[in-house]
Specification:
By secondary structure, the chain is an alpha/beta fold. Helix content is 47%, strand content 16%. It has 18 helices and 15 strands. The N and C termini lie far apart (74 Å).
Amino acid sequence: MSHPTITEQLSDPESARESGRKKIEWARQHMPIMTAVAEEFGTETPLEGEVVAMAMHVEAKTAVLTEVLAEAGAEVAITGCNPLSTHDDVSAALDAVDGVTSYAKREVDDEEYYAAIEATIDHAPTVTVDDGGDLVMAIHENYPELIDSIVGGCEETTTGVHRLRAMDDDGELHYPMFAVNDTPMKRLFDNVHGTGEASLSNIAMTTNLSFAGKNVVVAGYGYCGKGVAMKASGQNAHVIVTEVEPRRALEAHMEGYEVASMAEAAEKGDIFVTTTGNRDVIVEEHFEAMQDGVVLANAGHFNVEIDLDGLDEMAVGRREVRDGVEEFELPDGRRINVLADGRLVNLASPVAMGHPVEVMDQSFGVQAVCVREMVENSDAYDAGVHEVPDDLDREVAEIKLEAEGIEIDELTAEQTEYMDSWQHGT
Ligand code: NAI
């Protein structure tokens, strides 16, 4: 039996559609890059005849990307890339758009999650747009016969790019994929500012607690960790960074943060935010050392950074103390609060809206031009992971600067010659 669309799963799809439509319109109004790309795509319809399968966080900004791809002529089938990040109303509104089918639903179990991914694959995609890699993996594992007709795809996040590179190294990635995550227009804004702002605001909204005067432990000082540390510091928290990479640890130290092992930080922290993309970052020995009432949140892609099974085994009690906050009581009476089931807090907490609109405008602007590039120049890309051509990333930056009314200088011919030459010395 085919997997039901969101419309088929909701009891009142009409009111859901109405609410979702408002959210999408609000986002679109604040996305000048997507507006410019949509204008161009709308007249040229560069995706005519293509079928795009997407596994993304289905909320308002993603809906704008989806609509823009559909307006460019593509048939689009979309589902979630996390069991808790879908906004059902946005999903319903998308499902009503011409050329779009949405299977995304919030709070699905693993079986439903993968069934919805397979439902998008049943549309026989020629392009895939993924966040985390589950869609590409499902195609390679279960639908290898479709690979020949796929021109290529795009990957949105660090964890997905890691998985694709590992697949590529093993010779197991059989179509071209753009590492959208790795572009300056995505990573320097979305991972840093988006994750920083959205994780902190969602922790604050979910708990109603302040960061001021607290010890905030940030695990991982990569792009996301830097953003979380910067924004927490800006809200008057004392930030403690944990790392495994010596240069990043030093960078955090030089930027003024306390750097410690998790064993040491566990004793001091009030709020913990994991941003490593790795597993088992906070485990039993750390829970043992934590103070009563600590708050744990994850901002990395998967829910494996905090060992929730281990915490559950240690706990004598477990209850939901607020919407999206689960309290684990340890035998000595200490309480440990986990937000959003340890799933990425900026997207999975009950009040979550994901990154700010402006940031996603940039990320999805890059996604949109990359889909166009993959379709128009597919012969230029072999199977494997590809960097996004720099001129595409610049194109998106230029649109944004123009929309912001910001003018920058241009290199003169002499400056260009000087920068390109090795002959000029003292
Ligand atoms: P990154 O690779 O720049 O940073 C990760 C850092 O964690 C590295 O410096 C690494 O050395 C460190 N690390 C690894 N294992 C560790 C451990 N056991 N303890 C302490 N530090 C450790 O990656 P980036 O771009 O910061 O992404 C991190 C995660 O966040 C990924 O899973 C990515 O997919 C996800 N992400 C989440 C977003 C969100 O909306 N919440 C947005 C963008 C990315």
